Amino acid sequence: MKDRRAPAADRAHANLREQILHGRIAPGAMLSENELAAALSMSRTPVRAALARLQDEGWVTIYPQRGALVRELTDREVRESADARHALESAGVLRAAPERRQALATDLAANVDQQERSLRDEDFATFTTLAMRFHRAFVEMADNAVMLGIYERLQDHQQVSIVRSSARIMADPARILAEHRTLLADALRGDWTTFATHLGDHQARSHGLETGRA
Asked: What mean pLDDT do residues 8-32 have?
């Protein structure tokens, strides 16, 4: 629930950002200050401030007198973000103590089972949340706050990347689940080199990128 005590610009920013990240406002959409202000029951001033902040964050491009265009992530942005996540997740498995890996084993197995149910129910929003939590856990294995902080800064791009790949994922959910279970098995063995190879292949197939390391 949005905090009604927060400044209107913050509420507008949070609302629009959430809709963009979840794909409810699609890339290529042109946002009108007047229409947004009416939809959000506020004046144009906080909406204008929210759009300026979204532009600073790289989610929209403002065209004076026309509106704000929602940006599509480029293949390069998807690939570079995935490359950084690949490095951090692989390092998490490399650096994890055996007891740390085992402590997450039950939770991650249950997570994949929940992913399967959400895909079967065509609940892609829940799947996205679970998949992001699943991949984040590999970084958590290292018990390194700096690594985790860097990873968390990549998660907006990760979410948008997953949403933009929804058709590909839903076309073959069994493959995604099998790859996640393979990654979990690699991590629990502490076999970080095999994990890194499988993760690169998984990212490339999931996001439709040409290289083996997406």
From this structure: 94
Distance CA 180, CA 91 (A): 17
Q: Which CATH number fits domain 75-207: 3.40.470.10, 3.40.50.970, 3.40.309.10, 1.20.120.530?
A: 1.20.120.530
Residue 153 main-chain phi, psi, to 5 deg: -70, -15
Please say whether the beta carbons of 11 and 19 come within 8 A.
no
The C-alpha atoms of residue 20 and residue 46 are separated, in whole angstroms, by: 18
- The label of the residue with tokens 């951090």 reads 88
- For residue range 62-102, list pLDDT tens digits in order: 999 899 999 988 989 999 999 999 999 999 999 999 998 88
Which pTM was predicted? 0.85
The CATH architecture assigned to 8-70 reads Orthogonal Bundle (1.10)
Average pLDDT over residues 7-14: 95
Domain boundary assignment for the chain: 8-70, 75-207
